[in-house]
Amino acid sequence: MSDTALAPAFLPAHELARRLRRRELSALELLDHYLARIERLNPRFNAVVVLDAERARARAREADAALARGQSWGPLHGLPMTVKESFNVAGLPTTYGYPAFAERRLDGDAVTVQRLKAAGAVVFGKTNVPVSLADWQTFNPVYGTTNNPWDVSRTPGGSSGGSAAALAAGLTGLELGSDIGASIRDPAHYCGVWGLKPTWGVVPQAGHELTPVPCADNYDITAVGPMARSAFDLALAMEVLNQPLTMFTPVGRVPLAWATRGTPPRRCRVAILADDAQARVDAPLRAALARLADFLRREGCTVDEQARPVDSAEAHAVYLHLLRAATGARFTDADYAAAQARAPRYAATDMSYPARMDRGSATGHRDWVQFDQRRDKLRQQWAAFFERFDLLICPTATTPAFVQNQRGERWERLIPVRCADGSVLQQPTTDALFWAGYPGVVGLPACSVPLELCDEPAGSGSGATVRLPVGAQIIGPAFGDLDVLAFAQWLEREYHAFTPPAPAVD
Fold first, then answer.
1. What is the mean pLDDT of residues 330-358?
2. How far is Cα 83 from Cα 129, in angstroms, rounded to an integer?
3. Are 64 and 181 members of one domain?
4. What pLDDT, on the 0 to 100 scale, is given for residue 244?
5. Which of 11, 51, 131, 376 has the most crowded CB, counting CB atoms within 10 A?
6. Residue 63 sits in a domain of what CATH number?
7. What is the rounded CA–CA span in Å between residue 326 and residue 158?
8. Is 117 a known active-site residue?
9. Out of 26, 86, 178, 183, which one is annotated catalytic?
């Protein structure tokens, strides 16, 4: 579907910004368009959970007046947008889904929100998250459950689930998310939008933490990045979010240059990984990747479906341990002591998720350093891999959006996966962390892109089917974000563009 055929609510941010600059559309008119859609549609989806309408209207009027005087605030001048609830916005709550923080109001903006506003954005609300940003479903006791606009019985993903649902439903122009366990990439996949987990450290995280347990400026593994209805919007947002481009190091921030190769997409050497024993991938995703491989070969790309950058079991083990060590660092003293008490009870050979979680959460400094050294070996192997290939494309998650299930612990919730041998595996949702950590543990850029739509059985068991998006993640070398985005943009132009989940959002 072309941009011109889309209603204003579904236009990509770069096109909205162009129309705003040319005064073909006013900031106030566009903001009110989104607010009206939220009033009408948000009760079904519960994606936008905090509104700041009057302050936003005042800023939109100022934006329109500035343009009338010939003044521009920046590339996002007058663009209405929302941000994930976990980012601080002055005067609004940041709860991470915890009732204890529901009445708290923050005094200042996160650095990323400051940059978006400085570029002209009109931030008019916040989108929903799971408790502690720790689920691939988005529900909490403060704001309730967010539903997928493609099928309200299904998850929109998490933890940036409200962000992805708001974009897919046409409730906002652009979004800001965060990702430690595919929290940008996973919701983008489930909702049929785009999301970039940038190279670790290039976008600051200050103002994205839950006081009174603040994180460092760049929390280990976590990355902050944009979500949108277009890969071109991701590039536009990154120009704002990472300026000037820097990298966080033990001695502070240092300036960098993008490590772009500038290889035209049709000349790229692409490895495709469609399945893995660590986390089996459902049939529609494998089929979508096979069709993508065929397309890339026809277009002239070199495609290898056998190459692997690292040992999967080692990558998964290192990621889970360091992931849980990172999140465990934010535990209360009581929760940390409880994890320390549980960890020795597991046998050394126990590789279940609870065992790995407690061992990682209770890790000491010596143990962390040893795992960090193993991570460094993985990083070197990835670097060698990218001497032979420009990009790796693999799943973001194991299935299309699954039916919501809020019972029990995450690792107790099972989803059916149709395996390559014809069997159906009831797989824990936490197994999909493998695909989250594959590039994440070593800080590589990864862009989630939609590839196609598939027909899935409706959750009602009536025999009906629903259309759901299927996507993948494009992974590049460290600081290869621009090459990743260029390839995503090419796929958007030539292979699959944004499709609204009609009629649910009409």
1. 92
2. 11
3. yes
4. 87
5. 11
6. 3.90.1300.10
7. 18
8. no
9. 183
